[in-house]
Design goal:
binds manganese (II) ion, 19 strands, 291 residues, single chain
Length: 291
């Protein structure tokens, strides 16, 4: 099942290229009292709700996909977890290009572990990525994004995929420079998820996924998740040893070779097997990046 969020916090299921509005299913969520939970209560209940979503589809209003504004498929994100230097050919291009390494030694994920991006950086594909005023490069990084559906702590690789609510396309936008990753990758709009969440039963094996990113029609990144240094199961298990994973937490699994700059006015087009495609505009921010 492909589940999206759209327009004014509505929930949809993708059916034959149209969005079936199943927002009424949200009435089944528990009433909340302050302090509200940090995690996503819809994704927490998604496996229970899936049959009911399916039942709602029959009577739902259908809207052509082109007429909806797609939001991030995760409503309440608790953590955006990043996997640095997780494809060998991306490590190699970073080592060969001073515009990427900026004099820093480029290590791999085995040495670096994971990093976090600010949750305020998260947007959906209907919003533009905003490039700050800077002399530094602002690069696209397309990545398979894994969305957690169940609380997970110290789980093994064998059980890791049973904690997944779904998969979506991620963009981990990045300013190149000497600053810490949590600065360079956390500006507003620097985490894009979309176009929708694909549930694990429909998605299948996350370690065999072709994907591609083009900028204004030019192919920049084209790869398959089979080339991840730390695969999806290993990333989930590793993350769960560091922090408790909660429904709505996102793991961006790392980007392959072909990263490159974007400037205001350009359009990024992302496609991923078994998910679909999303187009994301690039616009100018008034923020001034200090270097
Ligand atoms: Mn990345």
């Amino acid at each position: 099942m492909k589940i999206c969020r759209f327009n004014d916090q509505r929930v949809g299921v993708l059916v034959d290229g149209e969005v079936a509005d199943v927002t009424s299913v949200l009435e089944e969520l528990p009433t909340m009292q302050w302090p509200y939970p940090r995690h996503d209560v819809f994704l927490e209940r998604l496996s229970d709700l899936q049959p009911r979503l399916q039942a709602h589809v029959a009577d739902a209003r259908r809207i052509p996909l082109a007429e909806v504004e797609l939001l991030s498929p995760v409503g309440n994100v608790g953590k955006v977890i990043g996997a640095p230097a997780n494809y060998v050919r991306h490590v190699n291009e970073a080592r060969a290009d001073s515009a990427i390494h900026h004099g820093k030694e480029i290590k791999t994920i085995a040495e670096l572990g994971l990093f976090l991006k600010a949750t305020s950086s998260l947007i959906g594909p209907s919003e533009p990525v905003l490039v700050p005023v800077t002399e530094q490069r602002v690069d696209h990084e397309i990545e398979l994004a894994v969305v957690i559906g169940r609380k997970a702590r110290n789980i093994s690789e064998d059980e890791a995929l049973s904690y997944v609510a779904g998969y979506t396309i991620g963009l981990d936008m990045t300013v190149r420079g000497t600053e810490d990753r949590s600065s360079r990758k956390s500006a507003d709009t620097f985490s894009v998820l979309g176009p929708w969440l694909v549930t694990p039963d429909e998605f299948g094996d996350p370690d065999q996924v072709d994907f591609e990113l083009t900028v204004d029609g030019e192919t920049r990144q084209r790869a398959n998740t089979r080339d991840l240094i730390f695969g999806v199961k290993q990333l989930i298990s590793l993350a769960s040893q560091i922090f408790t994973l909660e429904p709505g937490d996102v793991i961006m699994t790392g980007t392959p070779e072909g990263v490159g700059p974007v400037v205001p006015g350009q359009k990024m087009y992302c496609t991923m097997d078994r998910i679909g495609a999303m187009s994301v505009a690039v616009d100018a921010s008034t923020s001034r990046w200090i270097s």
